[in-house]
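Here is one chain, start to finish.
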Amino acid sequence: MERTLVIIKPDGVERGLIGEIISRYERKGLKIAACKMLKADRATLEKHYIEHKEKPFYEELISYMMRGNILVMIVEGSNAIKLARKINGSTDPVEAELGTIRGDYANTKTENIVHASDSLEAAEREISIWFN
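Its structure:
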């Protein structure tokens, strides 16, 4: 059973898309193993986004993620990492296929509704940051 971290970002929470987003993972056969809503602090976000620290969009990303509540989930199932990312769609909503979360709901690369871990190593690291 593979596990991955999924975050519904502030724009997804603000727009009332939590139920719609969760149902997309569940309809694909993935299970929500843990879930919590919170307002993220800077220190946690810096750990989570460490790989982006030197990139020009880093501060904008951190500020955006601190803007409001987020929903953090452990999603599990067969091929959970690849499936969650496929359900999410491309990071750039202009390139994201219709029928994906980002293709249907996102407007910008920064405010793109959801996050999902991109590898087993990232999933393990990210889950440990958000769930003790």
